[in-house]
């Protein structure tokens, strides 16, 4: 459907990242779910990598959980 994209390369790319979506975490928490603990850890790693103070941002302020079914 998109002639400039090689179908074989696109397929290989999708297959190589599939485990980032379908894994033990998504089985446990669901797709797109952010636990407070995992979100905090991700922010800590990001802040460290970017030389930003961890306490300069509350990652919870970027999440809207109202659309996630209970």
UniProtKB/TrEMBL annotation:
Superkingdom in the source lineage: Bacteria
Protein name: Uncharacterized protein
The species this protein was found in: Marinomonas rhodophyticola
